[in-house]
Amino acid sequence: MNNLRLSRGGGGTHNNTVCTWDLGFHHHRHQYTEGTQKHTQVMEEQGSLQQIGGLIESSFNSCYTSWVYEALDELEHNFTITDPTISGHPIVFASNGFLKMTGYLKDEVIGRNGRIFRGPRTNRRSIMEIREAIREEKNISMSLLNYKKDGTPFWMLFQLSPIFSKHDGRVIHFVSVQIPISRRKANSEDGNRWQELVLGSCRREVCSDTVMELARCRALDSFIDTDNRVLEREELCEASDSEKGKALTAIGSIMSVLTHYSELTGRLVCGNRSNSAVICSLTSALNISLGRIKQSFVLTDPQLLNMPIVYASDAFLSMTGYNRHEVLGRNCRFLNGPDTDPKAIGQIKDSIQSSQACSVRILNYRKDRSSFWNFLHISPVRNASAKVMFLHSTAKLYNLECSQVDDLARDI
Question: Which of 66, 174, 243, 269 could crosslink 239 through cysteines, CB 3.0-4.6 Å?
């Protein structure tokens, strides 16, 4: 009854006592509800962290023996390893050299995305190039301005390389090597010093990773990024040939360790995707989506040597008589035969070289070497940057006489 307090206001003692007790009850109920919500939130976060922790552990255990951790720890290079198959593309390994360079503890880095090292003067175009390299699963090297845990900016040579499964060509990890490089004197160093003081403290706040602090830092970051003059005044710090050599040496050493410890599990990894596994240049999500299309078509990858087929629809396989494994990794020219018109082939080559769509009538051959007229339409598939990622070739079969074929060709 500690909450029972008599009010000097109007009304009888009984009413005041009941009212005051009721307020006390609501007060405790509010505290209890708040406490329950916080407890539930903490439990959910812990459950989420445990789930991510399990995925991170599985990320390495599924490919390498447990000795790989010790071997990687012995390397003196500054690097991280990330897993693009886990939601958020988190860091699954951070070297001792990297932690010493940035000032973070291992627990503050593992499970986090590499964006925690960015700051207000990190070049946004560079970030977009890195994202593009990850989407295209290719190597990239660039100078990048990142931030330490205490908010101090530093220039580094950033070298990113994918790690492929030798069995099926999937990208299972990315290795990021960071080599500190000398920083040139900025054009407006004095004018930007105040921003370093203010925004450096904002970087330190991000280390706590609370929602409100992160939102505040992003808002400030967005404000500065809107004024591109800050980024334009900052000189790019180029890495020397020696520093570039160190990055390549580091990548080679890391790949050597990962390859060795993957051999012991029988699940080999490598630094290059073999043509026998080119189908995995497509994401699993894209493969699922393409499987719903009933048309006869193939996708070819102009980024790869000999522009191989990376996807073939069921209708295409049915029309040509080939099995999927007999098609993937091969150039479409295997469909040509002795009576295929060279002019039609030339028209297709011109279309590919100019990255333009084209429609052509061409005589192709099935697996059993029977011929068929193929009304082929080729069109480039571009990404958000308008770069040609794939060539989409739709095949239509017509069992017609030559005169009828000529009539239909004019209608394409």
Answer: 243
| Residue type for position 146 | N
Q: Is the pLDDT of residue 57 over 50?
A: yes
Q: Provide φ and ψ at 67, rounded to 5°.
A: -70, -10
The structure tokens 């630094």 sit at 271
User: Looking at the predicted structure, is the pLDDT value of residue 410 above 90?
Assistant: no
- The Cα–Cα gap between 376 and 353 comes to 17
Beta strands in 331-385 (DSSP E): 358-365, 371-382
**Backbone CA torsion sign across 91, 93, 96, 98:** negative
* Rounded Cα gap, residues 187 and 233, in angstroms: 6
Residue type, 293: I
Query: Quick check: 374 and 345 in contact, CB under 8 A?
Result: no
- pLDDT computed for residue 178 by the predictor: 96
Measured over the CA atoms of residue 37, residue 42, residue 45 and residue 51, the dihedral's sign is: negative
Say what the pLDDT of residue 274 is: 59
DSSP secondary structure letters along 326-354: GTTTS-GGGG--TT--HHHHHHHHHHHHH
What backbone phi and psi angles, to 5 degrees, belong to 342?
Answer: -60, -30
Q: Mean pLDDT, to the nearest integer, of 23-38?
A: 45
Q: Sort strands 153-165 and 140-147 into parallel, antiparallel or unpaired.
A: antiparallel
Q: What is the pLDDT of residues 58-105, one digit of tens each?
A: 888 888 998 999 999 999 999 999 988 787 889 999 999 999 999 999
Average pLDDT estimate for 268-290: 65
Return the percent helix, strand and coil in the chain, to nearest 5.
50, 20, 35
313 C-beta neighbours (distance < 10 Å), count: 20
68 burial level (CB within 10 Å; 0-12, 13-18, 19+): buried
CA distance linking residue 149 with residue 104, whole number of Å:
6
